[in-house]
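Example S7 (structure tokens).
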């Protein structure tokens, strides 16, 4: 396709690339691993015994239709772990009472810094609104991934598409794709992070796509880890860069990595960050890839050859060091008057229905309504990470760098109904056991589109245009 071009230097992708069959493999590799401590070793043994065998499998998904470039050939990804809720139970059991409670009251989450003193847009409630929602139709967005097109993959209850976020003290501005593209003229906006941020990238592309004539938009992929949507008449690009742990790690290949073997180079970020330096609007996230275990393998060396030298570190401590590495980079390389920097809060997961008063051993499967305010509790580890993130951002703000936390944590926690669940492309044939027990393979990490990530983008839009 002639309108498919590589964005950098205006060079065109060779035609045969553009005509390639459009498949990309997504690997859903989110796994939990417990190691190091004796208690954790026991957990590992239990885990090995009960862990379903299908995680190593590649998920193929048709991404963009025949006339598009592959998004990433064999892109791998974090994946929901159906067994996680059992792991957590085992873990809490093994670690006993000296461990922090896993959950605490959601309403304890402190208000975010950097939000307008007039109205905290992150404090509000979900309002059912089938008049103004959804913002686009699932089938009309070519860029939808197989993990997001829930209607296409069998979901019948479509109310999850029709909830609007209503802040308590004000209204969100109405999303206007043309206004956003005007703002992005001759600019680059880039999401950096894991598959949740990639989902938000897809959402934003879906939100602007319909207002651009087909011939005036294009798609490009820059190896190794970035993809971009281009609005040609505006010379505007909306990109995604894969860096699931923000800093460097052995999971930086979007196609080939294993969450359970991850080793994080907490002090190194340059390999990624050089791709961010000319970007005008940066939206970071990094959460789930840290959260899955209480300790994480940390390396201070470069990843050349086998990763032999690592130490185990408490997850939160490693996260803090990584955020410092990130904020040091921001401080040196970002000019606040040119670049807007955002950091997304924690995208919620809904693996334990008990947490919202649901059936034991269930998860987000068959949930069709959001949680209404009050009573629902958020994980302690999530709060710890949110606190760490705020501290890093506050430090930057004290040094004059305006970084905004988009505090999507709480509003996402309410949306137990909005996950992909079983309504996504299943690229591996399910076992009979799985088919008989849908709850075991429901994806309670990622989100359907149209849906929750659209609201994250409305919040982002409010900041970009009105702050
Ligand atoms: C991933 O794709 C590359 C080429 O794009 C190929 O060489 C490699 O074998 C693939 N890896 C797997 C695990 O399929
Ligand atoms: C919107 O929802 C209301 C209440 O659930 C229902 O009565 C009405 O038919 C719906 N309208 C549309 C267009 O779906
Ligand atoms: C959207 O924004 C454009 C450009 O700022 C403006 O011309 C247009 O009137 C807006 N549309 C709506 C419905 O507000
Ligand atoms: C197009 O946008 C890029 C930034 O994304 C900028 O460097 C370049 O100068 C722009 N081109 C024109 C013709 O303005
Ligand atoms: C920051 O960007 C502004 C606007 O582009 C420019 O005027 C200023 O010189 C830059 N500051 C530095 C330190 O580069
Ligand atoms: C959560 O906290 C709020 C206010 O702090 C309180 O009113 C509510 O009862 C608490 N809910 C639970 C389940 O503890
Ligand atoms: C999955 O099942 C279909 C038939 O239902 C079969 O044709 C296909 O070969 C199977 N794929 C694998 C990888 O087992």
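Recovered sequence:
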């Amino acid at each position: 396709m002639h309108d498919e071009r590589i964005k950098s230097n205006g060079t065109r992708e060779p035609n045969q690339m553009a005509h390639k069959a459009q498949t990309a493999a997504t690997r859903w590799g989110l796994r939990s691993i417990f190691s190091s401590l004796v208690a954790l070793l026991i957990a590992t043994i239990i885990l090995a015994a009960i862990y379903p065998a299908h995680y190593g499998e590649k998920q193929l998904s048709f991404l963009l239709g025949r006339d598009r470039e592959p998004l990433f050939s064999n892109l791998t990804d974090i994946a929901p772990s159906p067994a996680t809720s059992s792991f957590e139970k085992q873990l809490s059991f093994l670690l006993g009472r000296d461990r922090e409670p896993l959950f605490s009251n959601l309403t304890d989450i402190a208000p975010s810094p950097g939000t307008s003193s007039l109205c905290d847009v992150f404090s509000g409630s979900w309002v059912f609104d089938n008049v103004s929602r959804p913002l686009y139709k699932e089938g009309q967005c070519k860029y939808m991934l197989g993990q997001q097109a829930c209607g296409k993959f069998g979901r019948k209850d479509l109310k999850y598409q029709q909830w609007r976020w209503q802040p308590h003290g004000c209204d969100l501005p109405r999303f206007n794709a043309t206004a956003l593209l005007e703002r992005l003229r001759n600019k680059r906006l880039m999401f950096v992070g894991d598959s949740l941020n990639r989902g938000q990238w897809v959402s934003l592309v879906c939100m602007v796509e319909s207002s651009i004539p087909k011939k005036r938009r294009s798609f490009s992929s820059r190896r190794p880890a970035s993809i971009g949507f281009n609005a040609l008449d505006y010379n505007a690009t909306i990109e995604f860069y894969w860096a699931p742990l923000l800093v460097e790690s052995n999971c930086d290949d979007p196609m080939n990595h294993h969450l359970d073997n991850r080793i994080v180079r907490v002090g190194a970020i340059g390999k990624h960050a050089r791709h961010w330096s000319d970007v005008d609007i940066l939206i970071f996230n990094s959460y789930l890839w840290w959260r899955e275990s209480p300790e994480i393998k940390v390396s201070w060396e470069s990843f050349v050859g086998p990763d032999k030298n690592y130490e185990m570190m408490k997850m939160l401590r490693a996260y803090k060091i990584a955020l410092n590495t990130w904020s040091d980079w921001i401080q040196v390389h970002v000019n606040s008057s040119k670049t807007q920097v955002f950091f997304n809060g924690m995208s919620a997961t809904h693996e334990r229905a008990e947490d919202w008063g649901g059936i034991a051993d269930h998860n987000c499967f068959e949930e069709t309504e959001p949680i209404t305010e009050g009573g629902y509790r958020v994980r302690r580890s999530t709060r710890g990470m949110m606190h760490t993130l705020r501290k890093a951002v506050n430090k930057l703000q004290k040094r004059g760098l305006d970084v905004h936390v988009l505090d999507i944590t709480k509003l996402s926690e309410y949306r137990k109904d909005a996950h992909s669940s079983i309504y996504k492309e299943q690229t591996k044939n399910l076992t009979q056991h799985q088919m008989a027990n849908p709850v075991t393979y429901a994806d309670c990490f990622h989100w359907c589109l149209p849906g929750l990530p659209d609201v994250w983008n409305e919040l982002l839009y409010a900041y970009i245009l009105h702050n």
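Notes on this example. The chain has one domain: 106-466.
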